[in-house]
Amino acid sequence: MLVIGIDPGTARTGYGVVRQEQGRDLIYVAAGVISTSAESPMPERLLELHSALTEVISLHRPQSGAVEKLFFQRNVSTAMSVGQARGVALLALAEASVSVAEYSPGEIKEAVAGYGGADKRQMQEMVRVLLKMEAPPRPDDVADALAIAICHISASGFHKRLEGRG
Q1: Which CATH superfamily is 2-165 part of?
Q2: Active site residue 144
Q3: Given CB 3.0 to 4.6 Å as the disulfide criterion, which of 19, 47, 128, 162 pairs with 136?
Q4: pLDDT tens for residues 114-163?
């Protein structure tokens, strides 16, 4: 299974591509950050994000994708901006006929670190260990995107095991 995880944002969107073959170890494939300028109007930033995500999806051809659900805190304008970036990510995946799952931050932390309250450092270290990387992935957007992909692979395996018992 080849999965792309996307950590959406209008300033920076992280993506991470992870592969798992027949229940074996996870394999790091690619990761990066798509950045847009705060000086550009929002429609141009969203178009730039869409174009870049479409290119990444076309290059790697993932079988499925996962996007972090919107976690609303106090800053409404940040939540709106992240929501727009999420919409662009979902659209790019749908256009490529890639199935999509969405996970909350707590679900991602639970799947990767075994603890829904894990902090950034713990998450980066677990991603490093699970993907057998020499150093924790940086920046945070990349680590988060890889964690989202790992969460989806973990959840997909769980659902397949449940279906096998039915």
Answers
A1: Ribonuclease H-like superfamily/Ribonuclease H (3.30.420.10)
A2: no
A3: 128
A4: 988 899 999 999 999 999 999 999 999 999 999 999 999 999 764 454 45
